[in-house]
Amino acid sequence: MTMAGGSLGLPPVLRADGSPARVLVVDDEVPLAGAVANSLGVDGWEVRVENRGRDALLAVREFQPDVVVLDIMMPGIDGLETMDRIRAIRPEVRVLFLTALDGHDDRIAGLRAGGDDYLTKPFAVPELQARVRVLARTAAAIAQPAASVLHVGDLSFDKAAVTASLAGEPLDLTATEFELLLLLANNPGRVLRRSQILEAVWGYDFGTDSNLVEVYVSSLRRKLAASEAVRLETVRTVGYVLKVAP
């Protein structure tokens, strides 16, 4: 974890009732968990820290977090199993995985397991803060209801319910996938630069070394593969575009 940087300088994330948003940090590396908690506290979050999966389950019941920052590799109950049990208690909670795994397939596997986002160690404080803020947008106690439904090709979005469907069939999207696909659908036929996507979805440009956008585009492309009306295309060296059939 790179400890440079404090708050992003943005207003604190608040629940709909005006209270600070809550984040639960779960990592068996005590110094790292403390550093993560401190960085999120500086950014305005109410934070609780646990160092074991079993303790995290009790904390979910008592603390009622909006977002959980969860290490995958923990002794006893690992992060994947902990997430499954957390979702049984509080299914709407958003989960950001911390992982030492740096392979593309491992990252996709984490998302497929039900995580909403992932962050590979080591990471920078502003990136962590930005990722957690993205998840907060769709957390049940924080998200403000949206009035409209969007239709693009055979894609439909219910912004209030934070759900999407393809040709009438529900799309299984993580919170971040929903944000990214909605951004592209709001700009059909327009090429969006990678930097634009990072700023719009994550609120922060993570630099040229990050393949974050590529990972999420790859996942979305598979989920849209059955469609004959919309296509997610890469424009080499420029960005990405959602093409809609006439």
SSE-based structural type: alpha/beta
* Continuous helix count: 8
Number of strands: 12
**Strand count, sense and closure of the main sheet?**
5 strands, parallel
Identify the overall geometry: globular
Strand order in the sheet with the most strands: 2-1-3-4-5
Low-pLDDT residue intervals, each spanning 5 or more residues: none
Mean pLDDT: 86
| End-to-end distance | 47 Å
Task: Bin the strand percentage.
Answer: 15-25%
Q: Give the topology string: H per helix, E per strand.
A: EHEHEHEHEHEEEEHEHHEE
| Rg result | 18 Å
Q: Bin the helical content.
A: 25-40%
Could you characterize what this model shows?
This protein is an alpha/beta fold and 246 residues long. Helix content is 36%, strand content 22%. It has eight helices and twelve strands. The chain has a five-stranded parallel β-sheet with strand order 2-1-3-4-5, with helices on both faces. A four-stranded antiparallel β-sheet has the order 6-7-8-9, covered by helices on one side. A hairpin with a 4-residue loop joins β7 and β8 (163-166). α2 runs parallel beside α3 (79-89). The protein is globular. It starts with 21 loop residues before the first strand and ends with a strand.
